[in-house]
Design brief:
Layout lengths: L14 E5 L4 H12 L3 E6 L2 H13 L4 E5 L5 H12 L7 E4 L15 H29 L3 E6 L15 H20 L4 E8 L5 H9 L1 H9 L13 H8 L10 E4 L7
Parallel strand pairs: 1-2, 1-4, 2-3, 4-5, 5-6, 6-7
């Protein structure tokens, strides 16, 4: 008998590296991958939160490694990649999840340093981690999966906020992913992008207090009438990491409660 379709969603024998993997969307992706049988490598700045998420993963019967690093700093990003690649078996799945909007400054008031810091937070580490882990995937010759976290902000312009380095950076991530997919398809490496709308992660919970009118406007423009729960991204991330998506590459998957539909 043919194998069950659910077998195509298993990650048994795979190892996934997730940046920003101890909180928010990254944490939910890590837990989903653990449930599917993957070994997990969490990269992040906070030792306590990394250890907490690693303990949750291990409680589900999966193994977890933590690497304390700020991937927006090039030398730390390189070190994190090297530590992950030193593990027996290498990396099969890379999730570039780190990003954010900081600072919230109007274009005409944005300094050179703020612009560069915005791209370091949202773009530069994605390229660097992808290059390092992807090179190893190519050399190993077994293919792999790369999932970059974009945003609908790379497709539309947010209302009621500033800091346009975020929109520009996320647009770059979406297009970089498409270029990556084309270039590395001959190596059996699938590259895709997830572009979330408003999800109630810790930074957005803080935004609710700082700029409640912006959050209210966003929700009012969402057909489903609410923000997303971080867990609601896990199924899509699992699909893109699993054999079920073997013919999917170069795509940008929007998950936004319908915000961009009108």
């Amino acid at each position: 008998m043919p194998a069950s379709i659910f077998d195509d969603f298993k990650l048994t024998g795979q190892r996934a590296l997730i940046t920003g993997g101890s909180r928010g969307l990254g944490r939910e992706i890590a837990l989903a991958y653990a449930d599917a049988g993957a070994e997990i490598v969490l990269v992040g700045r906070g030792e306590d939160s990394l250890k907490e998420t690693a303990a949750e993963i291990e409680a589900r019967g999966a193994s977890a490694q933590i690497i304390i690093a700020d991937v927006t700093v090039p030398d730390e990003c390189k070190r994190a990649a090297q530590e992950a690649l030193a593990l027996p078996g290498g990396i099969d799945i890379l999730v570039n999840n780190v990003g954010g909007r900081k600072p919230n400054t109007k274009i005409e008031e944005t300094s050179d340093d703020e612009w560069r810091e915005g791209f370091a937070l949202n773009v530069d580490h994605c390229f660097l981690m992808t290059r390092l882990i992807g090179e190893a995937m190519i050399e190993r010759g077994k293919g792999g999966r790369i999932i970059n976290m974009g945003s609908i902000s790379g497709m539309i312009i947010n209302q009621g906020v500033a800091g346009r380095h975020y929109e520009a950076g996320k647009a770059a991530i979406i297009h970089f992913t498409k270029a990556l997919a084309v270039d590395w398809a001959p190596h059996n490496i699938n590259a895709n992008c997830i572009s979330p709308g408003l999800f109630m992660t810790e930074p957005n919970q803080a935004w609710t207090k700082k700029a409640p009118e912006a959050i209210e406007k966003f929700v009012s423009c969402t057909p489903m009438g609410r923000a997303g729960n971080p867990r609601e991204i896990a199924g899509l991330a699992l699909y893109l990491a699993s054999p079920a998506s073997s013919y999917v590459t170069g795509s940008n998957f929007v998950i936004d409660g319908g915000y961009t539909a009108w």
